[in-house]
Amino acid sequence: MAENADIEIKASQWRLVEVGRVVLFTHGQYTGRLAVIVEIIDHKRALVDGPSKKENAAVPRQSVALNNLIITPIVIEKLPRAAGRGAVARAWEKREVEKKWDESAWAKRREQREKRRNLSDFDRFKVLRLKKQARFEVRKAHANVRASAKSSS
């Protein structure tokens, strides 16, 4: 047997349903809002609380089916089970949950998708023209590079 075996045990990288895990609502009245799991009720439901300071982003403490949530990679470490609203709000602010979410690629993609969804026909036309213009400039630059490479050889 090995005397000093160096064994490193790592936790799994799965996003687990756990107390302190930040979740995103996918259905219902609070769609698109963030909350944190405060208590796990059973294998289908959890008690969540979203103490956001942003306007129209707070979620009152409530029991929610896990089917209506998406689990995010953000976790509030060492949040006690069934913590009160004040303790959850302090931990939320201390961990800067909303700032982390806003900086994530996931949130940026959702925001971009929402902007595109709300474009008018004329706005979509302007985007098309700008893309076409950018493509023309790139092709022109590539043509210049190819021409200079061809003339030097």
From TrEMBL:
Main location: cytoplasm
Subcellular location: Cytoplasm
GO molecular function: RNA binding; structural constituent of ribosome
Any single GO BP term: ribosomal large subunit biogenesis
Role this protein plays: Component of the ribosome, a large ribonucleoprotein complex responsible for the synthesis of proteins in the cell. The small ribosomal subunit (SSU) binds messenger RNAs (mRNAs) and translates the encoded message by selecting cognate aminoacyl-transfer RNA (tRNA) molecules. The large subunit (LSU) contains the ribosomal catalytic site termed the peptidyl transferase center (PTC), which catalyzes the formation of peptide bonds, thereby polymerizing the amino acids delivered by tRNAs into a polypeptide chain.
Family: Belongs to the eukaryotic ribosomal protein eL14 family.
Name of this chain's protein: Large ribosomal subunit protein eL14 domain-containing protein
